[in-house]
């Protein structure tokens, strides 16, 4: 199976809202919600993708030829590549009932672990979603990262108990999900968190705590103050705030503020190994890719995920070789050009 076959098969299973496009750039689905699109006029997801394309890579092949090492160390774990599968929830509502949240995570988590990376899993109103996700992570000896929504503190404690039982090596909170209506209507209230509330959650986590949804240097510093071990520069794929900045636009200033003090991960419109290279050159330690992994699962199950991981890895290795970087640490800002 190759990637084109994955796309062709996905189009027969993924429903009518997602088009399983050759390049997942947000254009065809735009403001389709429920579905894979973005909030409001729908251009934030498109902008996420476009801003990575405006960055060019600087070729330099006058260098010693060496073996390419794409390995990443994160929180005591070794990964073959500096990218992760992102959390996706409400699979049946946004795509089709060919998969549920439970069966999707079962496939994704195991396939990622078998191919040298890890998957972030989603969360939802249905408590069985987190329970099943953490069971899938437990089945691969903790090589996965559960993502907990910013519920009220009592609900978060219940979710963290499942995380601890799974043996997950880290846990994330998508703080940007504060914009989701079902959180805003909870009693007691859920949603945005103060620095002190985040600090309490980080302490209760018991494993490295990742805050997802950072879009300013100020927010990154607040996450650091709260004791987060890592952040994910993310605008939730444009799904929670219309006309938000693209992640590629804000990554350099965030890296300047907290780079070297905490691990920096970025998502939003990253679609190729070349894009991954650009993100690392701008200061990220790793990236997260979400929507295309949905296509990979629908298009080929575990084999589809393997094909997509191998595609990204080959593109990243080729870019590194052609720019004279043979380890991730050798990728520098001088290797890209921002227009």
From TrEMBL:
Active site per the UniProt annotation: 236
Gene Ontology MF terms: FMN binding; oxidoreductase activity
Cofactor: FMN
Manganese in keyword set: no
InterPro entries from the UniProt entry: Aldolase_TIM (IPR013785), Alpha-hydoxy_acid_DH_FMN (IPR012133), FMN-dep_DH (IPR000262), FMN_HAD (IPR037396)
Reactions the enzyme catalyzes: (S)-lactate + O2 = pyruvate + H2O2
Highest taxon above the source species: Bacteria
Protein residues bound to FMN: 212, 234, 236, 267-271
Residue ranges occupied by any FMN hydroxy acid dehydrogenase domain in the UniProt entry: 37-339
Keyword Oxidoreductase attached: yes
One Pfam family recorded for the sequence: FMN_dh
Residues given in the record as glyoxylate binding sites: 239
Keyword terms, alphabetized: Flavoprotein, FMN, Oxidoreductase
Gene3D superfamilies, per the entry: Aldolase class I
Family the entry assigns: Belongs to the FMN-dependent alpha-hydroxy acid dehydrogenase family.
Name of the protein in its database record: L-lactate oxidase
Species whose genome carries this gene: Phascolarctobacterium faecium
